[in-house]
Amino acid sequence: MGYRLVGDGAMVVHFLFLAYMALGGFLAWWLPRSMWAHAAVAAWGLISITTGVECPLTALENWGRTNAGLAGLGPNGFIDHYIEGIIYPEEYTTLVRWIVAALVLVSWIGYGTLSKWRGGRRRPVERASSEGLTSA
């Protein structure tokens, strides 16, 4: 039972990870500090697509599933097992990747635009100096 929970937990985290990779930049519009985490997730997505390196979540899910007596995810991993051919047809894989890349790009452009807008609307910070209070 414990191994099955590990496998199922890894699957849920993997779905959340992919959702954050596609949409996390929009979250950064409201939580600007989350952009660093989103940049790291997007970089991992790019690395895994271009190099084919196995995601640690896939390895963890396979470990949990096989130790629970279940079949592993197969040679192509998480996306092939749960997403391709189920959520969208396999022949649209390249299109879906480009759509995700476009979502990330649009969210980052929006983040940059909002950052500039927010930066221009800040009031000067007052700080102490040897002559008294001055505006920075």
From the N-terminal CA to the C-terminal CA, the straight-line distance is 61 Å
The structure class reads mainly alpha
Count, helices: 5
Binned strand content: 5-15%
User: For the residues shown, what is the average pLDDT?
Assistant: 88
Which sequence of SSEs, written as H and E, runs from N to C? HHHHHEE
Coarse shape: elongated
Can you offer a commentary on this structure?
Helices cover 66% and strands 6% of the residues. The chain has one domain (2-124). It is mainly alpha-helical and 136 residues long. The protein has a two-stranded antiparallel ribbon. The mean pLDDT is 88. Helix 1 crosses helix 2 (35-51) and helix 1 (2-27) crosses helix 5. The chain has helices at 2-27, 35-51, 56-67, 77-83, 93-120; strands spanning 126-129, 132-135. It is built from five helices and two strands, in the order αααααββ. This is DUF2784 domain-containing protein. Pfam families: DUF2784 (PF10861). InterPro entries: DUF2784.
Layout of secondary structure:
Blueprint: H1 2-27, H2 35-51, H3 56-67, H4 77-83, H5 93-120, E1 126-129, E2 132-135
Antiparallel strand pairs: 1-2
Give a short overview:
The protein has one domain. It is built from five helices and two strands, in the order αααααββ.
